[in-house]
Amino acid sequence: MLEARLWQRESMRGNYPSPLQGDGGVLTPGRSSVPSNAYARWLEYVGDPQDLLARFRRAIQDGDPTPGALGRAVVVFLAASWETYVEELARESAAKRVAARLLTAGDGHSVSQHADSMHNPTVEKAGRLLEEALGDNPWVGVAGGGMTEMATRQMINRNQTMRHQFAHGAERLSLPESVLVQRVQQFEAIVASVDDRARSILCAQMGRDPW
Q: Which of 8, 62, 141, 159 has the most CB within a 10 Å radius?
């Protein structure tokens, strides 16, 4: 399932050969390698939006069958998954730069420590951590789901704010499932865009595909 989704994402960009060209549909690197390990973990956690909602519906059916439970679950889950992705990408990027002698081991350790202590990463917090790990601005050109760069950043912060409000007893959210599916799809597009930006930065520094 994970390999199929990775192939689908990269083949849409022309990075993998088509399964109709004799490779039998196996995930085979073409002009580019697979995305970062951090992105692979994101796909593993989040999965298909409809399947994600179905899993949450089953989980809350007995324990919390209120109208806002599904919306709250999706918002909190996306916030946690986004936090995990940012932390993992920072560690992975710093490790690549340390191995390439572009970052000292001490600075790489500092990135890891800062990732460990990160909580509720807004665009600003994520930007500071990723810039420390990558050595460049991670937000240039990052957009997802048909949104502008500004709208993308606002959506991330809005989701993080809602997650914070839920943690402090705010009123439960009731959203149509179509909106929740769109939110999952938007976040996946954002994560893919951040991953591409990180790869572009590291490629320029290392002279090769880092992943």
A: 159
Exposed e or buried b for every residue in 30-51, given b needs 16+ CB within 10 A?
Answer: eeeebbbebbbbbbeebbbbee
Matching residue, tokens 């989980």: 59
The separation between the first and the last C-alpha atoms of the chain, rounded to the nearest angstrom, is 20
List own/partner pairs for 164-168 with CB under 8 A and 24 or more apart: 164/120, 166/72, 166/75, 166/76
| CA-closest candidate to residue 139, choices 192, 83, 188, 197 | 197
Name every residue whose Cβ is closer than 8 Å to that of residue 32 and which is 6 or more positions away in sequence.
10, 13, 15, 209
Which positions ≥6 away from 18 have C-beta within 8 Å?
11
Does one domain contain both 92 and 123? yes
Helix count (H) and strand count (E) of the chain? 8, 0
pLDDT at 173: 64
Whole-angstrom Cα Rg for the chain:
18
Please state the pTM of the whole predicted model: 0.80
Residues of the chain with pLDDT under 50: 1-32
What is the spatial distance between Cα 30 and Cα 98, in angstroms, rounded to a whole number? 27
Number of structural domains, the chain?
2
Let me know: does 108 contact 160? Beta carbons within 8 Å. no
Residue 48 lies in a domain: yes
Q: Which amino acid makes up residue 103?
A: L
- The answer on 73 and 12 residing in a single domain is no
- Do 20 and 121 have their domain in common? no
Domain that holds residue 16: 1-34
